[in-house]
Amino acid sequence: MASEDAFKPALLIIDTQNDFCGPDGSMGIPQGRSIAPVVNKLLDLPFFLRVATKDWHPRDHISFASNHSAPDNKPYDSFVTIANPLNGSEKQTTRLWPDHCIQDTPGADIIAEIDQGKLDMVVEKGQDPRVEMYSVFGDPFRNPQVTRSGLAETLKINGVTDCYVCGLATDYCVKSSVLDAAGEGFKVWVIKDGVKGVDTQGCEQAFAEMEKAGAEAIQSDGMEIERVKHWKT
Ligand SMILES: [Zn+2]
């Protein structure tokens, strides 16, 4: 088989955690929990690797509004500029959130509706208190990047060619993970009915950005998914 025909698919399930789902999550995403049946349907497919990610923050994480001073410490409303801890001249503006997905708390658990017995791997992210980390692959700084999860390396060592992405939230961690996956050289498919986002407008922009980066938006019952059912090593 020619290498350009190589196909080895992985499923990435982004941050399907209690704190991101209503009604009790600290930052419940509208209808976040409703994607569980789609996620479970995808977990039944013969992906080479089924990976779930978890936002996994220490209590002093920089993305928590509670760790900043007034007046710029309002969850959802406040944005702060943070500098690369390894290079003070690289700066980014980032949104502040309620405390969420704190390590070893129920809010950080994957929602009970998802069939976790079918997961091959769980990757934790966002442990470095100094940087935001929406993407499962690493933080957004580049000069240099501060922390990487090692997932890209794991996928590449195993010969994975295609990443199928679902989860929460479309306009934040899904988008950043998709953009990084495309940047790492994977073919990326976003499962439209397997994602939910924070802001409606943000989701539209997110899909535009993801598609511009080369990702394709598909439905979980679309013809593109058939290839996953029949691939062979
Ligand atoms: Zn977070």
Describe this structure in words.
It is a single chain. The protein has five helices and eight strands; from the N terminus they run E-H-E-E-E-E-H-E-H-E-H-E-H. It has 233 residues and is of the alpha/beta class. It has a single domain, classed as Isochorismatase-like (Rossmann fold). The chain is globular, with a radius of gyration of 17 Å. The chain has a six-stranded parallel beta sheet with strand order 5-2-1-6-7-8, sandwiched between helices. The longest helix is centred in the last third of the chain and has 14 residues, at 170-183. Helix content is 20%, strand content 23%. Zinc ion binds at residues 55, 57, 63, 100-101, 126. Residues 10-220 form the Isochorismatase-like domain. Pathway: Cofactor biosynthesis; nicotinate biosynthesis; nicotinate from nicotinamide: step 1/1.
Task: Give the arrangement of secondary structure elements.
Blueprint: E1 9-14, H1 36-43, E2 49-55, E3 79-84, E4 87-95, E5 121-125, H2 151-157, E6 162-168, H3 170-183, E7 187-196, H4 200-212, E8 216-218, H5 226-230
Parallel strand pairs: 1-2, 1-6, 2-5, 6-7, 7-8
Antiparallel strand pairs: 3-4
Bound molecules: zinc ion.
Zinc ion (ZN) is lined by residues 55, 57, 63, 100-101, 126.
Pathway: Cofactor biosynthesis; nicotinate biosynthesis; nicotinate from nicotinamide: step 1/1
Pfam families: Isochorismatase
Protein name: nicotinamidase
What are the defining features of this structure?
two-stranded antiparallel sheet, 6-stranded parallel beta sheet, 5 helices, Rossmann fold, alpha/beta, 233 residues, 20% helix
